[in-house]
Amino acid sequence: MTFRATVLTLYPEMFPGPLGQSIAGRALADGKWSFDARNIRDHAIDKHRTVDDTPAGGGAGMVLRCDVLAAAIDAVADGRPMLALTPRGKPLTQARVRQLAAGEGAILLCGRFEGFDERIFDARPIEEVSIGDYVLSGGELGAMVLLDACVRLLPGVMGAASSGEEESFEAGLLEYPHYTRPVEWEGRTIPEVLRSGDHARIAAWRHDRASADTRLRRPDLIERHGGAREEPPSGARLED
Ligand code: SAH
C-alpha cells in the first residue's frame, strides 16, 4: 500500500514544491508515496469560475463557497481521511501524524481568503487541523508541513537508525541536544559524557537533558502527558 496524498487548492502549481526535494522528494521519485494537486477552481459552476463570495453578515475578505468545495471534494473522496487546514482546527501533533502515516494517505483541503463556508464541515467528514497559533495566507504551506511530517515516517523513507522513535514529541518530551565534531570550537567543548563511550551513561544523560529541557521550554508538554516521568530509552538498561 502506497501512501497517497491529494491536495485541493487554488494554487496547484505551488506543489510539490519543497516536497519534491530531499527526503520527501527522493521518496516521491522512488514511488514510496504518491501525490496529486487538484485545482478547486475546476469545480466552479458559473461561467466566471467563481470560487468565493462575500461573507454573510459583512466584514472584510471573501469566503470559499461550500458548493464549489463540495464538488472538488466529491471528485476525489475515496475513504482516505479528509483534513482541512485552518487556524480554527485542532493543533496537529506528532501522534496524529503517525496515525496518518500508517494509513493509506490523506485528502487535504487548503483554504485561502477568510477561509471556508462553515457548512462544508457539517456536510462532509472533514477533520479541521491547524499547524500552529499564527495565521498563514493560505493552507498550502500547512498541507506541505503535514505531508512532510507524514512522508518521513513512511517505511523505507529514512534509515532504520533514524526511524524517529527517539525524536522530539515521541515520548512526550523534546529531544536531547546534539553535538558533532570539532570537539572544541570557540572555546566550547562537547559534554564529556558524550565522548565517554559509556552507552548507559550517555542514554541516561540524554534522557535527563530531554526531561530538563522539556520542563524548561515546554511545560505544556509535561502537563499534557500527565507529568509522568518517562522510562529511560532501552539503551540505558543495556549492559554492552
Ligand atoms: N480568517 C481566518 C484565517 C484565514 S487564513 C481566521 O482568522 O481563522 C487563509 C487560509 O490559510 C485558511 O483558510 C487556512 O487554510 C490557511 N491557514 C492559515 N493559518 C493556518 C494555520 N495556522 N494552520 C493551518 N492552516 C492555516
Structural account:
25% of the residues are buried. The model is unreliable at 235-240 (pLDDT under 50). This protein has a five-stranded parallel beta sheet with strand order 2-1-6-5-7. A two-stranded antiparallel sheet has the order 3-4. It is of the alpha/beta class. It is built from seven helices and nine strands; from the N terminus they run βαβββαβαβαβαββαα. It has two domains: 3-151, 3-Layer(aba) Sandwich (Alpha/beta knot), CATH 3.40.1280; 166-224, Trp Operon Repressor, Chain A, CATH 1.10.1270. The chain is 28% helix and 18% strand. Helix 3 packs across helix 5 (140-151). Bound molecules: S-adenosyl-L-homocysteine (SAH). S-adenosyl-L-homocysteine (SAH) is lined by residues 85-88, 110-112, 114-115, 130-132, 134-139, 142.
Question: What descriptors fit this protein?
Answer:
about 240 residues, alpha/beta, Alpha/beta knot, Trp Operon Repressor, Chain A, five-stranded parallel sheet, 9 strands, about 30% helix, about 20% strand
Rg value? 22 Å
Strand order of the largest sheet: 2-1-6-5-7
CATH superfamily of the largest domain: SPOUT methyltransferase, trefoil knot domain
Largest sheet properties: 5 strands, parallel
Cα separation of the termini: 38 Å
Small molecules held by this entry: S-adenosyl-L-homocysteine
Count of separate structural domains: 2
Based on CA inertia axes, which overall geometry fits? Answer: elongated
Beta percentage is 15-25%
